[in-house]
Amino acid sequence: MTAISPEAILPRRQITHNPLAPLATLAARRFQLSVRTPRELVVPLLTPILFALVIAPALKQALHTSTAYEAFVATGTIGLLIPLNTMFAGLGVIVDRESGAQRELLAAPIPRPLLVVGNLAVAFAITALQVAVLIAVALARGIHFNATGTGIVWFITATALFTIGMYGAAETLASRVPKSEEYIARVPAIAIVPWFLAGSLFPISALPGFLAWFAKVLPLTHGLALVRYGLLGDSTGLHNIWNMHNTTLMATLSLAVVAVFATALTTIAIRVFNRAAVR
Fold first, then answer.
1. DSSP string, the chain
2. Which comes out higher in pLDDT, residue 58 or 220?
3. Which terminal CB of the chain, N or C, has fewer other CB atoms within 10 Å?
């Protein structure tokens, strides 16, 4: 009796391998691990909320500034929230390598870059949720945003690309650093120091000459300028970087900088992860 192949019974579309299935499984696994450790959701959000609810109003009162400064500081805290959250996500990679199932996953018949992309997807989703919470808290506090439809597109695109780039930095560091203690020791230099130089609390034009030029190189400076352009309709940050008259051109150039940052760091993260996996 002639054997009947599965292809003769099932339609071809039902037996075709779904290339996104492994990615969805890896992302679901990483999300479950993140939910088990609520600190990854809560801790990175505490400092930005304090800035939005306490520090921004206090600075406004102490410096006798306008209400626009509250919005300036509130949007600036996004530049602190994203690096902190992505760096916490990178710490989870080290924990997974030391005591989790990373070795088993490396032996599974799936492309290794999917491990990085799966982690990125979860870090991206959690960060997006936290940014939304931060904006909601700022609105509840009475901070006014002047966002248009186009501005929201600029904001979402810039924050998405910057989040991708920062997670690439976190994944790269996690692959190169053997212990979580060493990783944590390097987090302030990567996640916090650039925030003070990128125009978060004051325009970069207030910095000394050398630091002002250095700030223009930081992807975070471009990201915050786009965030404020998108949410507040304020192009001052873009003008401080590019010193041009065409606002759309300046925004496009800054977005290109953030896009290059995201692409380069993601590529580096995948390569470093692949090299570390074969050690």
1. -PPPPHHHHS-HHHHS--TTHHHHHHHHHHHHHHHH-THHHHHHHHHHHHIIIIIHHHHHHHHT--HHHHHHHHHHTHHHHHHHHHHHHHHHHHHHHHHSSHHHHHHSSS-THHHHHHHHHHHHHHHHHHHHHHHHHHHHHT------HHHHHHHHHHHHHHHHHHHHHHHHHHHH-SSHHHHHHHHIIIIIHHHHHTTSSS-GGGS-HHHHHHHHH-HHHHHHHHHHHHHH---HHHHHHH--S-HHHHHHHHHHHHHHHHHHHHHHHHHHHHHHHT-
2. 220
3. N
